[in-house]
Every structure is written in C-alpha cells, then in structure tokens.
Design brief:
The chain is mostly beta strands. It is built from 2 helices and 25 strands. The strands form 5 sheets. The protein has a 16-stranded antiparallel β-sheet that branches. It has a 3-stranded antiparallel β-sheet with strand order 19-18-22, with no helix packed on it. Strands 2-5 form a two-stranded antiparallel ribbon. It is globular.
C-alpha cells in the first residue's frame, strides 16, 4: 500500500515538469474568478435544513407541546454571505497529447454545520482533455448531479432534495462519439456521508472497498441535451456484531435518473426524474432499514426508496430572468410493514410525499451585479409506517 501511494504522489508531482518539456505550443495561463453573495431569507415555520437554514429541504412535522401548541410553528429570519466564492483555473502545456487544466474553488459554508463561516474546499481537480476523450481526477460534482441542468434556485439548495446536490472525490472518464457522450465515474465520499449506526460517516463506504459507481449516456444537440444515469452504492454499515465478532454484511443499492434540457427562443426547460435508493448523502430523499435478529445476532438491510421529479422553466427577457421550479417526491415504501427491531437511516422515512412550488426572478443590473427574489412553498405529508 505504501508503494502504491508513493507512485501516485510521484506522478502528480512530476506533471508540471513533464508539461514544460512535452509541448511548447501551449503556455501556462491563470484565471481568478469569484463572487460575493449576501442572502436574506425568512421561513414561516421551522424546517429540516443545513448551514443555518440556508440549505433548506422541507418543513418539520407538527409537534405538539403540553398545551397542544405546535412548537415547530415558529417563523425565523436570517442573513448570511457564506456562499461567497473564489476560484483559480490553470491551463498548461499539452501532456501525453492532452490539454491539461486544473481548477481549485472554495467558499465559506464550511465542511459541516459546526464549522460554518470557514473556508471549505468546493472543487479541486485535474482534467486531461483529448480530442474525443477526457479524464478528470479530484473533487467535483457528485455523479448524480447533472450540472448542465442544475436549477438556479436560491438560497443554496439548488433544487434539493428533488435534485441532488453534493461534491465527491472521483475519477471520471468521458468519451465523445459525435452528439453522444458516455461517462463512467468512480466516486468517494467526504463532506456528504452515508448514514448508519455511527451517524454520518465515510467509514461505511471506505471499508466496503468499493467506490460509488456511476454510468451515464448523454445526447448533446443544438437545442436538446438529454441522458440517463445508473448509480451503484455499496456500504458496510457494521464491522462488528453486538457480541464484538467481525461481520461482513453489505447493503448494495442501485439508483437511476433520466434528465434533459431544451432551449428555444429565449426559453429554457430543464427536467429530471430520480429513483433514489439510499442517496441520502446526495442531499436527496431515501435511505435504508437495518433489522437485527436477536436469535442469530445478525443484521439485514432493505431500502426505503423515493421517486422524485422536477421541472424548471426560465426565460431571458432583457435584463430580467423570470423562472419557475416545480418538484414532487413520493416515498415508494410508505405503508409497508416494518419491524420494531428495524432502524431507519436516511431522509424522509416517515413522510409519504413532498412537493414544492418555487417562482423566482433575477434582474441583471450589469457589471457583475444582479438581484434575485425567490419565493418557495414546500409541503411535506407526514404519516406513520405500519408496525
């Protein structure tokens, strides 16, 4: 293992030296970008969210106190500028016949809620681009995040939990065949972690010895962009049973997505549907159930999966950008019988359905300054799974 790590580090450190001698046609270039994004928002009740409520998912359920008052029926008001961002893009001489580029980006949302307002690594990757193929290695968008169709909702959720939102360390291979593109990704968790017996942790996937695998087929036309994706996640929630003996029980889950974008005149339509089985770490709905058999001291796993769909209409009209986001989600296992020995890990277990209507309007003032006004109505239908 030590030899493998040493080889990888030597290769990465040698890249700048090779780049200087392999090609003189392309020189080094550097570009800095970034923005400042102060956001003010108000919630009519308490919500399930992250980053001080900026990463909004859905409203909390009714929870009555001793006087039959709903303790979650409480409004809130906040302002943050943590999404302020800075990045550096670097291009260098060709290496092995490929255009080389590197990209590093950070913001101030912090890697966890406890470290909010601190600098966080957002993207950090190297990309090698040949004529019809490319390889990307580093931290980039989670494979089920299709950044070409990402809805530009505010303040931070970008359509979550209907649209995935996360970044993973990964190796991504792309191959272009005319208007078609095939993509294969092997991804590893860091900031966004699977849920399990020890809370949110990367240990469940790292000890499985299998990265999260993703395959995509995309079509890119003049007006139409469309594709499909399949995702496989393998985790080992436990390494020891309750007697302290080693166990190797895994939970393998497959998820699927169909997505697209179409442009005509000044209009753009984006859409995606997602069958998510244990994609909690992608800021979407779903997860899994762990059952314990006391007689045999063994654990078993099964999913509670969600189907979500969303559309986003937008129009460019001079300096104005009106748009509308619509999302709907359905718990595919709601109403199923579950055992009192089962424990749920994930998001949306005791919820039957979820929908959102979110109109917005953006005004482009010019010289990099814009203003956005966004209204979101999210409804969650809570219930109780059957014992």
């Amino acid at each position: 293992m030590k030899k493998t790590l040493l080889t990888i580090l030597t290769l990465l450190l040698a890249l700048p030296a090779v780049a200087q001698t392999d090609s003189v046609a392309r020189k080094w270039s550097y570009k800095f970008h970034g923005f400042v994004n102060p956001v003010v928002w108000a919630d009519s009740r308490q919500v399930v969210a992250g980053r001080e409520g900026m990463m909004h998912f859905y409203p909390k359920p009714v929870e009555l106190d001793g006087n039959s008052q709903d303790i979650n029926d409480e409004p809130s008001l906040n302002m943050l500028a943590i999404t302020a961002r800075v990045n550096l893009a670097v291009q260098g001489p060709d290496v092995l016949g490929a255009h080389m580029m590197g990209f590093v980006e950070g913001d101030f949302t912090g890697p966890t809620d406890a470290t909010i307002n601190t600098l966080r690594l957002r993207h950090a990757y190297i990309k090698m681009q040949w004529e019809k193929q490319s390889v990307l290695a580093g931290q980039y968008w989670y494979p089920m995040v299709i950044h070409e169709i990402m809805p530009m909702t505010q303040p931070l959720n970008m359509g979550a939990p209907f649209h995935p939102y996360a970044r993973y360390n990964q190796v991504r291979y792309s191959c272009n065949l005319g208007n078609w593109e095939a993509v294969a990704v092997a991804a590893f968790q860091l900031d966004n972690k699977s849920k399990g017996p020890n809370g949110g942790s990367t240990e469940y996937i790292t000890r499985s010895m299998v990265p999260e695998m993703n395959l995509q087929l995309r079509y890119k036309g003049e007006r139409l962009f469309a594709g499909a994706a399949a995702n496989l996640l393998s985790i080992r929630p436990r390494s020891l049973d309750l007697n302290g003996d080693k166990v190797d029980t895994r939970y393998n889950s497959a998820s699927f997505s169909i997505f697209g974008k179409y442009r005509w005149d000044n209009w753009t339509l984006k859409a995606q549907t997602l069958l998510s089985d244990n994609l909690y770490e992608g800021c979407t709905m779903g997860g899994y159930l762990e059952d314990y058999d006391a007689m045999s001291n063994t654990f078993s796993y099964r999913p509670f999966s969600w189907t979500t769909a969303w559309v986003d209409f937008s129009r460019n009209k001079g300096k104005w950008r009106p748009a509308l986001f619509l999302g709907y989600g359905l718990n595919n296992n709601f109403g199923d019988t579950y055992s009192t020995t089962e424990t749920a890990y994930g998001r949306g277990f005791e919820m039957k359905s979820l929908w959102r209507v979110q109109p917005r309007i953006n005004y482009i003032a010019g010289h990099g300054l814009s203003f956005m006004f966004d209204v979101e109505v999210t409804n969650a239908e809570y219930g109780k799974m059957v014992n």
